[in-house]
Fold Membrane protein.
Amino acid sequence: MPVDLAVYRAGAEFARAGTDLYAGPVNNGLQFTYPPFSAIVFLPLTVMSLGVAQTVVVVVNGVLLCFIAWRCAPRWWPVVVVVALCTEAVHTSVNLGQVNLALVALVLAAPRVGVGIAAGVKLTPLVFVAHLVVRREFAAASVAGATALGTVGVGFLLLPGDSVDYWLNGMFADSTRVFAEAGSPHNQSVRGMLLRLGVADPLAWVAISAAVLVGAFWLANRVERTHAVALVGMAGAAVSPWSWGHHWVWVVPLIAVVVRELALRRWVWLVPVPFLLATAPPVLAVVNPLEGTPALSSGPLWFVLSNLYLLLLLASMVPVALNALRDHRVSKLGTTQ
């Protein structure tokens, strides 16, 4: 049975029964880590058996994946779907019954209200509000931010005690509720990488995360929307205190960009391809098995695979940075003639 789906359903059952959502585990020793609004969103799961819910979620995730692929690359969407299913991010999202593909679809389909709802279900899409502010799209940022605040208000209205625990008592900032060992290779974030390097200083995490966001935002402002969503979404996963591999479903719009660009014989887009291929579940299982002992626990290859999604983000920035450098040189040459 999909582990995360079972947790979503159990959390919704806790919410419906008026049981404290964050006091302890809700299913099989696992805690509910999402905002109270998400438990309200998951309430329909409580009227289904786990078996029916599993079937519904698999079908919905399949439809969402096809929609995202079509939205990002209408001509090449079947190719995008096939490649995406081979990545650990998408494979695990579907296998666990995760909500991640719905968040990507919301951001793509409705960059204002959709961003706010996605942030209400899971906090990381707030990075898109920040990007809208940086782009000086203040009206869009206001709508997205107000929608996100509205989801918080709905949570306080319907689940006041849980909302106090989550928002006012700091539950939202406690990443140990996700996984006790922040330096585990399962944590595919800047913080996880630093802890694996033995750097525990939070200032280093903040500084590097800020640099990642600045770079991603600057490059995202130079590309079309699908590409921008991929860059900003992956940057959000990178700077989060904790990011499972399946949090990196923003690779789906990236795959669409890579397929489109390679179809046009823009070979610089081969740069992120090896990293995309390495996100296949059997490859990452070498260092990140869900169960059992990893085949690798140290060494250069271990470090690469332990930080593969971060390296994929950097690799996906390279073509854009090179294009920006070329444009700058052309512009400079034009002004001197």
Observations:
- The chain has one domain: 3-336.
